[in-house]
Amino acid sequence: MTKEELLNSVKENLANREKVDYPFVPDFKKADVKLKELFEKNAKLAAVDYYDISSVAEAQEIMRNKLPDAKVICSATQEWQGNKDINVQKPADLNDVDLGIFRAEFGVAEMGMVWITEKSLVTDSMGFLSQHLAVLLDTDDITENMHTAYKIANFPDAHYGCFMMGPSATADIGAVLVRGAQGARTLTLFFLKKP
C-alpha cells in the first residue's frame, strides 16, 4: 500500500464515521462554597502571598517594600507599567527580569492557581524567567474546581496555556523543598477588580 492509498483510506473511513456525543461530565460543584476563601487557603499552601487591594498603586507599594532591589520590571498588563518592554526579539531577552507582572484570566479555588495564556503573558517566557511574579486577579473570575475550569479555559483558542500554582518548587534532592528552583522565586497575588 502506498502512502497516498493509506491517506485516502483514512479520509474515506473518517467521512463515514458515526458522530458520537462526548460523555456528560459533571462539574462536581458543591453548595455554598466561598470561592475566594477556598482560593486563599489553597494559594497559601502553595506559598503564595495574597492581598486585597483597591488600586495598582497599593500593589506597587507592597512590591517595592517586598523587593527593594528589583531593578528590571516587565509588565504584560496596561494597568501596571514596567520599565522593560514585554515585546522582545527573543523570549530569552527577558532573562534579566526581576519582577514580572500579569493579569490572570481566571483562578481555580480548589487548587489556589491561575490560568494563563499568551493573552495574559504576551511573551510566555516572562512568566518563567522572571525572578518574582506579581499577579492581578479579579475575584469574580474565580471558579470552583478543575471541572468548572475546563469549561472556561477554551483550550482550542489558546496557542499556549498553563495553570500556575505558586512559585517554582522542587523536592527532588533529599526530599528537601526548595522554592524558586527552576522559575519564579515568589508569586504575589493581588485581588483587584478589572478596570
Keywords:
alpha/beta; Rossmann fold; five-stranded parallel beta sheet
Tell me about this structure.
The chain is α/β, with parallel strands linked by helices and 195 residues long. It has a single domain, classed as 3-Layer(aba) Sandwich (Rossmann fold). The protein contains six helices and eleven strands. The protein has helices at 3-15, 35-45, 56-66, 118-121, 126-129, 146-152, and strands at 48-52, 73-75, 99-103, 106-108, 113-117, 132-137, 142-143, 161-164, 169-170, 178-179, 186-191. It has a five-stranded parallel beta sheet with strand order 1-11-6-3-2. The chain is globular and about 65 Å long. The mean pLDDT is 92.
Short summary:
Helix content is about 25%, strand content about 20%. The chain has about 200 residues and is α/β, with parallel strands linked by helices. The protein has a single domain (about 30-190), classed as Rossmann fold.
Q: With helices defined by DSSP (H or I, 4 residues minimum), what is the helix count?
A: 6
- Using the alpha-carbon principal axes, give the shape: globular
Taking pLDDT < 50 over at least 5 consecutive residues as the criterion, the unreliable ranges are: none
Largest sheet: 5 strands, parallel
Under CATH, the topology is which?
A: Rossmann fold
Strands ordered across the widest β-sheet: 1-11-6-3-2
Topology:
Elements: H1 3-15, H2 35-45, E1 48-52, H3 56-66, E2 73-75, E3 99-103, E4 106-108, E5 113-117, H4 118-121, H5 126-129, E6 132-137, E7 142-143, H6 146-152, E8 161-164, E9 169-170, E10 178-179, E11 186-191
Parallel strand pairs: 1-11, 2-3, 3-6, 4-7, 6-11
Antiparallel strand pairs: 4-5, 5-8, 9-10
